[in-house]
Amino acid sequence: MIQPLSDDRGRPWRLLLAVLSLVSLGMSILLAASLGEMRIPFEITLKAILNGLGWGDYALNPIQQGIVWEYRLSRALVAASCGAGLALCGAILQALLRNALAEPYVLGISAGASTGAVVVMLLGIGAGALSLSLGAFLGAVLAFVLVLLLAAKLNSGPTRILLAGVAGSQLFNALTAYIVSTSANAEQARSVMFWLLGSLGGVRWPDVILAVGAVGIGLVACLFFARTLDAFSFGEETAASLGVPVTAVRLTLFALTALITATMVSLVGAVGFVGLVIPHAARFLVGPSHTRLLPASILLGANFLVLADIVSRTLVPHQVLPIGVVTALVGAPAFALILYRTRTAP
Amino acid sequence: MTLKTHRVSWSIGRRLLVDGVTLEIPKGGIIGLIGPNGSGKSSLLRLLAGLRTPTEGSVTLDNDPINRLPRRTVARRIAMVEQHASTEADLSILETVRLGRTPHRTVLSPWTSRDDHVVEQALLHVGLSESRHQRWHTLSGGERQRVQIARALAQEPTELLLDEPTNHLDIQHQLELLSLIRQLPLTCVLAIHDLNLAAMFCDTLAVLHRGQCITSGRPQDVLSADLIHSVYGVRAEVSTSAHHGKPHIQYLI
To answer: Which sequence ranges form a coiled-coil region, renumbered to this chain (chain A) (predicted)?
Structure first.
């Protein structure tokens, strides 16, 4: 298949694509801050954002100012960070595990986060001292550590790690189901399900700092490890013979992806499909080289989740859909299309 | 002589795969590792590449134990070509060969004209200069091996280790590939099954049997009917070829 963008001569096009996706990210965030239950004109949205940044001093309706700055902008920024973070983790894991189906939740992280959240939400463990997010974060980290222990040794092959992840996910999903079915009433069960499918409701500025921070760390790491990940193209043995300290790199990157994913899941729940589909879409656009693939995944993921959030808030009037529903509804057909377009001759 | 093993052993669980092998890799030329399936050829190659840590004994590179050297340092000296390299990634020949520069680059160092030059030479060596933009998954088995050899050459190694590089190739491509390896200006260690080809192309042979190196030397000194019978359990007649003067083996059944 011909991929002009992944070619040496595609450089100006890739730069153009990067600029375009940055512009579109800015526009999407503006759109997200403007659209919603109460439609606020772009001009006022822009002014409200400038006010919030301290770069303007426009006289605005304080309700509109509050909705744009406190509620919608923070929400859009968390959505962008989550999309970026999950897509980045997906791209890294697909390279490390050499498996097209690898994604941030494959190591049991989302299952662990769900259990952690449910334990706090329904059993009241931590008695208010532990927030839902912290419970989810701890659950995610615990699950990740358990999965790595289950994989026995880090130098065991990718297949073993994947299998350990599957087993870990099943275990934690069963725990979650057990707790929900024994301790929740109908209303609680519904809110748990809503949380599990991902919800951006209730995010505020402190969450933005956390999310942007996590993605920032991811960005630095991706610059640092991009070439190393390329060396994994032909497997771990070849990577090692190319001078990559395989075990150390794997441990570092697993821990990094686990922390980013755990942070995202603890903020917005288990938003599915982003970590799986976006890296494939990015690869389709810019090719397999990680110095391009990782930034492309970040930009594409951020764009995608901001737009998905807009759809989730506006598709059904007077109701917010779980964002996981939207990502899967859009993601699944897009994934099918990519699979169809990238199929290789048998 | 720079790459040596000293009574090196390696086992997985209770299975002893390499059993006290002491071997010096002579500088230049081709050394062939021969022996039946499971005799420890591949394992010994991985020990020589520093990809496995010996359970006993040591492998040294210029008298330094290879497992104590940073991986990057080793990768600039020793390159390895696997039996069956494969990838899911949609890489071109050029992109694959460029991977060979990995141990020479740091995180922030840009791609240099020297990198370009080395990659260019590697492509020329294996005769793939023209088809550099072809995608990996469109290549035949023989072409893939040549690409991997070019990738290994781009590491600028002094020692090249090859694990049964001619496996699954037809005879024309086997001969082509071995002639290509023969012309490389570095020390090659190769695991090989075909005794006739081993005799034709290798300067030195080391015979492995149940993890032990039972003999080594020039092909004409090593290959005998007795040795083949004791190692492979097969009757054979070894004569000197009228064409190339190397030992020629006919199997008797």
So the answer is: none
Which structure tokens are listed for B194?
């075909």
Question: What are the DSSP calls for A160-180, one per residue?
Answer: HHHHHHHHHHHHHHHHHHHHH
Place of tokens 């005794």: B195
How far is Cα B20 from Cα B10, in angstroms, rounded to an integer? Answer: 8
With 0-12 / 13-18 / 19 or more C-beta atoms within 10 angstroms meaning exposed / middle / buried, residue A272 is buried
Best CA proximity match to B157, nearest among A68, A242, A125: A242
Quote the minimal CA–CA distance from B61 to chain A in Å.
Answer: 15
What confidence score (pLDDT) does residue A346 get? Answer: 41
Residues of A with CB under 8 A from a CB of B: 1, 3, 6-7, 98, 100, 223-224, 227-228, 230-231, 233-235, 237-238, 240-245, 283, 287-289, 342, 344
Q: Which of A1, A240, A342 sits opposite B71 (nearest CB)?
A: A240
Q: Which domain holds residue A194?
A: 4-342
Q: What is the pLDDT of residues A1-28, one digit of tens each?
A: 344 455 566 778 888 888 999 999 999 9
A233–B87 C-beta distance less than 8 A: yes
Provide the domain count of chain A.
1
Nearest to A334, CA basis, from A293, A279, A288 = A279
Q: What share of chain A is helix, strand, coil (3-state, %, to 5)?
A: 80, 0, 20
Q: What phi and psi values does residue A60 have, to the nearest 5 degrees?
A: -125, 160
Supply the pLDDT for residue A83.
Answer: 94
Q: What is the pLDDT of residue A189?
A: 78
- Domains of chain B: total: 1
Residues of chain A contacting residue B137, judged by C-beta atoms under 8 Å apart? 344
B8 membership: H or E segment, kind and range: strand B3-12
pLDDT above 90: residue A127? no
Task: Please answer whether residues B214 and B221 qualify as being in contact, where contact means their C-beta atoms are separated by less than 8 angstroms.
Answer: no
Instruction: Say if residue A10 is exposed, middle or buried (CB neighbours under 10 Å; 0-12, 13-18, 19+).
Output: middle
| CATH number (domain holding residue B96) | 3.40.50.300
C-alpha triplet A271, A275, A276: angle, nearest 5°:
110
Q: What is the CATH number of the domain that holds A145?
A: 1.10.3470.10
* pLDDT at A129 > cutoff 60: no
**Domain ranges, residue B191:** 3-251
Q: Is the pLDDT of residue A345 over 50?
A: no
pTM to 2 decimals? Answer: 0.88
Q: Which of A6, A7, A231 faces B99 most closely, judged by CB atoms?
A: A231
The encoded tokens of residue B151 equal: 């990738």
- Which tokens sit at A3? 């991929």
